[in-house]
Amino acid sequence: IEADDETLYATITASSMGTGQLELMSATDGKTWQHVYAAQGADFAVLGAQLAFGQSGAGAGGVALSADSGATFATTGLGSVKAIDSFGFDKQGKLLIVGDGVLFRQRTEGWQAVGAPGGSVVATTPQGTIYMPGDPTYVSSDDGATWLAAAMPKYTYVGTGQLKMPVALALRDDSLLVSRTTYREDLYPPVHTNGQLARVTPEGEATDSAAGLNIVSMVQDADGLLYASTDNFPTAQHSSDSGATWQEVKTAAPGFVIDGHNRYVKYGESGSFRSGVVGSSDTKLLTLSGFAS
């Protein structure tokens, strides 16, 4: 995630601990990364100098909050909430958290439950629109005061499998793309065998964007170009019109994250990471530092 001051933040797994411990890292150049925070958790969010890291584990639940770009953290709880699933921000920059299927907003006096219909994922756009993906997908343009229910396009699949939602990406144009797939665990290896991509607007309208594309990952660059990958018979896809049409290409997404200056991070050899700039084939090895021995 890129902060307003162009600092990049990411999490890595401290596998040597074997406890699901995550390290929150930061970098100002995309090449050299420093340790910020370590905890058992699953997600984090950044807005300006605010950092929020979801914590889990016995006696360590709640949210670790920083108002000074990670220099100091304070832990705040969410009462009886046990699992923190997703993060976002409202129009005022207040932190939004989905915990145990309930949407909460950060207040000075504590956490307030927002009158949202429920779900495990929240996605927010730069314009402040809040999406709760599902069927239907709920949309709010007034910080959760009112919600519109967007009826998702019909998705049917003849055969066995589980309905999954591997992608819910809020776009720069204030809309949301939701990928729904059929996941087959009876096949080896398990795969997403079919799918549908739907586009949801702030007005609460959902349309079928790409029937038959079983998209399992998607990123958007600073110019609005979408990169996606499909499963089962893997393909790389590009879209320059917010997902309305897609073109199969031979070149996959340059990385799994792209910042506002089109710098990207991708997987390297032997568990390493490399960084580069969209449009250039030159990459540099990322340096991870700041760890205790």
Which short descriptors sum up this protein?
mainly beta; globular
Short recap of the structure:
The protein is mainly β.
Task: Note down, in words, how this protein is organized.
The protein is mainly beta and 293 residues long. The chain is 0% helix and 49% strand. Strands 1, 2, 3, 4, 5, 6 and 27 form a 7-stranded mixed sheet that branches. Strands 7-8-9-10 form a 4-stranded antiparallel sheet, with no helix packed on it. The protein is globular and about 50 Å long. The relative contact order is 0.11.
Envelope shape: globular
The residue fraction in helices comes out at under 10%
SSE series = EEEEEEEEEEEEEEEEEEEEEEEEEEE
Beginning-to-end CA distance, first to last residue: 27 Å
Return the average pLDDT rounded to an integer. 83
Weakly predicted, low-confidence segments: none
So what's the oligomer here? single chain
Q: How is the main sheet built?
A: 7 strands, mixed
Strand share of the residues? Answer: over 45%
Query: How many strands?
Result: 27
Question: Roughly how many Å is the radius of gyration?
Answer: 19 Å
Number of helices: 0
Secondary-structure-based class equals: mainly beta
